[in-house]
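Weekly sync, protein design subgroup
Attendees: M.S., D.O., the rotation student, P.L. (late)

Item 1: inverse folding check
M.S. brought a backbone from last month's batch and wanted to see whether the design step gives back something sensible before we order anything. D.O. pointed out we never logged the input encoding, so this time it goes straight into the notes. Structure tokens as presented (323 positions):
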């Protein structure tokens, strides 16, 4: 029995006890699945899970706070759920977690690039058909059919995924997979630049930012959207000026708020309509919290993020020995 069939059985099993089960279904185009809120067995027939099930469904959980819901998660999604539990943003008794082992998801932006299409193709419906078979994906766009190797269009985060399996679940289907190593090579490459080069890099990237806040809205752990520093008028923390420095300031605040909390799902960068690599900010902060506090977000539902607590002495920071 396929993973998808097993997941459908697990969803049907829990469906009578919850308001709905959040999963994935057919998307707006062949390149991706969309969130699906299942309330009936007929809804479950539309459920899909696989390389096109990219979106992190944990972002919807707070909207259901106080109601019991089910959610289907792959490894990175489950870490977001765990972190939300750790911060008491949701209640454990209100969530039924259905997990499975992820074999990687496709990056729609990489696909349209390989096809020689503009990034606008993601929203313009230029892709008519997509078929997965073995290690290849066949895509039809503008009347032309192209075969691509799956490894060439898999999301970058999947090549460094430590947790392909759901780290917490009530129902788990499929055989667990081994995680990979994340050496933070992209962060090292960035830090190899001079300070001036780094600033010029971000200044150039931020010139393209349209301040849509999709990066913030797509993040399951960015939970203060209604009174975000970016839009607050009392106090007035941040201007709405269309300058690279103001936009960079917002991204630095966003990354700092997520330090030790970000689970590396990559939704911030994926949601960006102008393809700014905003995930690099979070990865820099993640590595710093790992080095300083030996802490990874979204692994332990009982752990408190290091910047949300205080200790007189941190075990990994030997201040008494500093000279």
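Designed sequence read out in the meeting:
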């Amino acid at each position: 029995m396929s993973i998808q069939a097993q997941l459908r059985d697990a969803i049907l099993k829990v469906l009578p006890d919850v308001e709905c089960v959040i999963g994935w279904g057919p998307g707006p185009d062949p390149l991706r699945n969309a969130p699906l809120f299942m309330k009936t067995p007929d809804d479950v027939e539309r459920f899909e899970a696989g390389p096109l099930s990219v979106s992190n469904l944990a972002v919807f959980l707070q909207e259901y706070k106080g109601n019991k819901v089910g959610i289907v998660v792959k490894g990175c999604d489950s870490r977001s759920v765990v972190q939300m539990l750790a911060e008491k943003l949701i209640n454990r008794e209100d969530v039924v977690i259905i997990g499975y082992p992820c074999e990687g998801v496709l990056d729609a932006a990489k696909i349209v690039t390989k096809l020689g299409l503009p990034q606008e193709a993601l929203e313009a419906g230029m892709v008519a058909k997509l078929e997965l078979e073995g290690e290849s994906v066949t895509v039809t766009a503008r009347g032309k059919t192209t075969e691509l190797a799956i490894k060439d269009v898999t999301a970058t985060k999947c090549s460094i995924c430590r947790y392909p399996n759901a780290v917490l679940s009530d129902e788990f289907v499929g055989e667990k997979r081994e995680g990979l190593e994340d050496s933070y090579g992209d962060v090292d490459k960035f830090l190899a630049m001079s300070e001036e080069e780094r600033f010029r890099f971000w200044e150039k990237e931020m010139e393209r930012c349209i301040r849509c806040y999709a990066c913030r809205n797509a993040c399951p752990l960015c939970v203060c959207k209604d009174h975000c520093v970016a839009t607050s008028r009392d106090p007035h923390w941040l201007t709405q000026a269309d300058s690279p420095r103001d936009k960079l300031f917002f991204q630095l605040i966003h990354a700092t708020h997520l330090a030790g909390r970000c689970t590396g799902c990559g939704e911030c960068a994926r949601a960006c309509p102008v393809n700014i690599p905003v995930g690099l900010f979070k990865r820099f902060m993640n590595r710093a919290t790992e080095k300083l506090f030996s802490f990874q977000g979204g692994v332990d539902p009982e752990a408190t993020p290091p910047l949300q607590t205080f200790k007189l002495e941190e075990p990994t920071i030997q201040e008494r020995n500093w000279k």
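Discussion: The chain has three domains: 1-107+154-181, 108-152, 183-323. Residues 108-152 form a domain with the Nuclear Transport Factor 2; Chain: A, fold (CATH 3.10.450).
Action: P.L. to compare against the previous round before Friday.
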